[in-house]
Amino acid sequence: VKPMTPRCTVPKAVPVGKSASLHCHENEGYPKSTYSWYRNSEPLSPDTKSNAKFQNSSYTLNPTTGTLVFHAVHKGDTGRYSCIATNDAGFAKCEEQEMEV
């Protein structure tokens, strides 16, 4: 079963240095969906250590739960965030939401 449009929760504004949690979830997809996050249409790597571009980012992305957690946000984390739920039957994307730091 193709995933339905996931529900995304993105904080509107976060002070520099604070933590922020972004959530993405949908229940219809079978098999269970995995989740990927995008900032300004660029995919966020689930593995920040192996990707030089994300070395300075302090976030944890869990593809199974759809949770994206920033441990200490910085100005560079400002942007439009969206999430895609994917399974064998297809994918669905939530609306982009702005997060300001």
UniProtKB/TrEMBL annotation:
Ranges for the Ig-like domain? 6-101
**Which PROSITE patterns does the UniProt record give?**
IG_LIKE (PS50835)
Family annotation (Gene3D superfamilies)? Immunoglobulins (2.60.40.10)
GO MF entries: cell-cell adhesion mediator activity; integrin binding; protein heterodimerization activity; protein homodimerization activity
| Transmembrane region(s) | none
| Any GO BP | cell migration
Q: Name one Pfam family in it.
A: Ig_3
Q: Does the keyword DNA-binding apply?
A: no
Give the highest taxon in the source lineage. Eukaryota
What protein family does this chain belong to? Answer: Belongs to the immunoglobulin superfamily.
**Protein name, as recorded:** JAM3 protein
The organism named in the record is Burhinus bistriatus
